[in-house]
């Protein structure tokens, strides 16, 4: 699961992917309609990596929330989101994150997080990570084979230089120095 470079912009619906830096902000692309625009420095831009959910113990990162939802839903999109009531969404969120702080996490926050999950799923950002088991390998030293040297061709003798090539170039004419300014004192 990869949420690096994904942003939420206050006042704008959906999520945005960072495309490039610009002189006055960041160029982002909407994950909903793929339109690009400049997110100026005056916009409130939040990286999904930095967003956390309040819990009773410690705050939970959004990445771990998405991971828990994905594991519960077997890495599929949420189909009940649009038809569910607020109470049903709270129950579902409580079943995924058992220790979230119900007083500080609002209904709108839960709905937004679940919508973001679906949006990331549609853009292939929610994927199952398959961990490969490390196999112990023993380094095998290969036998060194003698290297055959290539036969080199003898070089042709250098050409004899002619008289013109051996003579030193004629001395360049002396350059004239720039005249220096002299000031004469006027006699009084």
In short:
The protein is α+β, with helices and mostly antiparallel strands and 188 residues long. The chain contains four helices and seven strands; from the N terminus they run βββββββαααα.
Give an overview of the whole structure:
The chain has 188 residues and is an alpha+beta fold. Among the domains are: 6-47, Roll (SH3 type barrels); 52-122, Arc Repressor Mutant, subunit A, CATH 1.10.10.1650. Helix content is 22%, strand content 15%. It contains 4 helices and 7 strands; from the N terminus they run βββββββαααα. The strands form 2 sheets. A 5-stranded antiparallel β-sheet has the order 4-3-2-1-5, with no helix packed on it. The radius of gyration is 36 Å and the shape is elongated. The chain starts with 5 loop residues before the first strand and ends in a 22-residue tail after the last helix.
